[in-house]
# Entry
Amino acid sequence: MRNLEIKEEGQKYVMNTYGRLPLAVVRGKGAYVWDADGKEYLDFVSGIAVNNVGHCHPKVVEAIANQAETLLHCSNLYWIESQVKLAKILVENSDFDKVFFCNSGAEANEGAVKLARKYAKQHWGEDKYEIITMKKSFHGRTLATLTATGQEKFHKGFEPLPQGFSYVPFNDLEALEKAIGPHTCAVMLEPVQGEGGVLPGEDAFIKGVRKICDEKDLLFIVDEVQCGLGRTGKLFAYQHYGVEPDIMTLAKALGGGAPIGAMLAKEKVAAGFKPGDHASTFGGNPLVTAAGVAALNVILEEDLVHNAEVMGEYLMCKLEGLKKKFNFIKEIRGKGLLLGMECAKEVSGIIEACLEKGLLLINAGPNVLRFIPPLNITFEQVDRAAVILEEALAAS
# Structure
């Protein structure tokens, strides 16, 4: 089938929940994908920060193929070897002690909300349930994580929303302190906001959140669904700030393309859950955790975290160069290979122009271009992307 045929059948049979671009991606390798008509694209979307090791990394493909021939699924009523292996790698490379596996970032954040409430009620009282999140945040599409998301546009049409969430401006410690009330049990934030416009947390703010949580008996939760696993030039984004959160959530890049989420917690906090308190039928099943072990080993063994740091600096320089040429570019910001270009106008036309020229980009709000290439991107590929982007900016 060609692009047009797939589009027409998709419009007929698939629910209209995405504003899709007019191509069907049918193959990927490394930093490139091809559509159903055979056209090649340099991919700076990476499945929205999923393909950190690139498309179809041979070690991930091999792990999935081998596991598919051995055991596809097994209930969590039994121990699963690849799940234990993945949990061990995550714990040994972070500041957490225990891992719960699920299927997505929304599920991981839902689990974090439940664990925070359960722990708080056990230790601080039955009236502790409220979680403070940040404006412009994004935490998922379930009703609870949708409510945790500090953007009203995602709330509309789904009321009444669950109780127990409030919002403060990101990077505003004073507002956070004022928002803490008798029912507050936790603060949840993305160290680098992705969907909200690629907004990095300021050093003093993140450190201050940890200090406030310690002083007020609150849990500190970091959502690293998009910014974790090497994306920012550290294995985990919280490591930029010299703090240790109580709970962290992961997903997207964890399975190298396979659907998996994870919630990590300190030992004392994880003990808030007992058998029966939380579960996920497919969470951490043999297939996805085998993919996760392979993907995480690639990130560590191929030193992709360092490459993300180096290539992020290089890409930042390229984007800053374009900012000097086009006066409608307002700011370049981000960390590692999670970068944003804020413009004084909407960027949808720039994305479409890049698409025509063979570069896939995504926005982060109407006025921000987001750059999230694979972590093994090369200098040559960044150069090619910069040339295409400059042409698209000039034509916009």
Remarks:
- The chain has a mean pLDDT of 98.
